Amino acid sequence: MEFMKLEDMTIEQKIGHLIVARGFIDEEDAAYILEMVKKRCLGGYQYVGDKNRSVLGKEILKIADYPVLIYGDMEAGYGEARYPAHMGVGASDDPKMANLLARATAVCAKRDGVNFACAVVAEPALKGDLTRNGRSFSDDPEKIADFAVEMIKGYQQEGMIVTLKHYPSPDDSLGDSHMKKTVSHLTKEDLLKRNLVPYVRAMKEADLTAIMTGHPLMAEIDDVYISSLSKKVIDIIREQGFDGLIVTDSLAMMAIAQNYGKYECLATAINAGNDMVLPNYRLTYKESFEALLKSYKDGVISDERLNEAVSRVLRAQKQAQQPATTTVLTDEMKEALEQANQKCICGIYKEGYTAKLDPDTKKLFVLLCENQYNEPGELTPEIQMASPRSRQSMEKKKEEILQMFPGSEVLIINEFPNFTENEKVCYLASETDETIFYTFCKMGAYLGSDSITERIANLIDANMDKISAIIHVGSPYEIEKFKDAKRIITSPSQGKCEEYMLKALKGEFTPTGKIPVKLD
């Protein structure tokens, strides 16, 4: 493995080092990427994703004779090291556990050659935010900083470059940048006082190696360019002394694509102060490379800015070659992973109640599943992802419940129930001693909502006197709609956490998590 030197690099090599190749790559583009690796014209590659992308990542690692940054989104772990998303980790109130989770993730990722973690989120959890709540530790900047610093230390201890994201993390900007341009009215002073607290502390306490820029328009600072394309916004963190790698979030989002041009935004991002870009995944790597090369040849990108950016990429590549301290998960790491699935669960009870249900009553469990949709047609593969809330998944959950609570009635309904489903729930609730609702709200890109549906909220309200418990997975803000519930067992995260939620109703587990945001 040979470290590249800036003074020996061609222009093509420098331009290639500005790009993290990504997207749903076809055979022709895969061949082009491999050829560019042989020429040392690729700075980074997004490894985690579909099967084809992983296969290509292994080929890149096999043929590269210089240290390519292999990038992965790892907010909830990697490989065998899986744990709740950030809000679940925040609910544990245990930053030291977070450090071990990051170390475990890095150890597993390093075994696959992944050395660049886009993994730690600094955004505050906002009520009504469409994409960030489950991905945020808390609504408190200092608590966010406590967890972020520990996770960053953990990743870097195991030889990973890790980003804190999505700079500048405003707390007055709702909406989904995947779908539209979102606007913040915070000033530079506001950011330094509140929102940049995690970034500044991570720089001072953890020697932060990288930052990822987000896409809100900071209207009081730059009313033309969104943050990821704004030199005025990026300069603020540089002024605080940050000299590490800065990479954009995905340039495929509509905040970019609908406003700044899918080709033109690449050079704009570099000129703004980003050192690497995550191009629009609808472009091939060849298209992104050629667009940036043309911008350089047209004089849009200066030699000074190009060399500055590439120097930081080369430094990050070198840092990322540090080996992990172990190649297997330690017992301490394994224990932290198991604890994370327990400590994220919170219980809220009316006076006189505990998590445990009466074992002698006749019970009705109402499980929500995601509505079934027709074939999505021309949507990109990034959006066509299997749902853990599909009817098939809930059928498995039904069998699990029947094993734990034999003799119960279990009914699966859509998250947008029709009148027949609503009527059936109401009738069966009247025929049983107690009803348990198993709810969820899905948080993610292109959904346009992070709430349970109004139909479900009204159905729960109509049966509240028969409801003995609500299990809720997702945004904790939604449990404000269940104020009259006798007991609520909630977690921001799904997966293994849910095993413990059911055990709590059985009386075999006591939730200890703390809701990490302020609720009405």
Range of strand content:
15-25%
Query: Main beta sheet, described?
Result: 8 strands, parallel
CATH-derived architecture of the largest domain:
Alpha-Beta Barrel
Name the poorly predicted regions: 379-386
Distance between the termini: 56 Å
CATH topology of the largest domain: TIM Barrel
Number of E-type strands: 18
The first-level CATH class of the largest domain is given as Alpha Beta
Number of self-contained structural domains: 2
Mean pLDDT: 92
Radius of gyration: 24 Å
Instruction: Report the total helices.
Output: 18
Strand order of the largest sheet: 1-2-3-6-7-9-11-12
Class by helix and strand content?
A: alpha/beta
CATH superfamily of the largest domain: Glycoside hydrolase, family 3, N-terminal domain
Keywords for this entry:
18 helices, 2 domains, 520 residues, Rossmann fold, TIM Barrel
Tell me about this structure:
The chain is of the alpha/beta class. The protein folds into 2 domains: about 230 residues, Alpha-Beta Barrel (TIM Barrel), CATH 3.20.20.300; about 160 residues, Rossmann fold (3-Layer(aba) Sandwich). The protein is built from 18 helices and 18 strands. The longest helix has 17 residues. About 0% of the residues have low confidence.
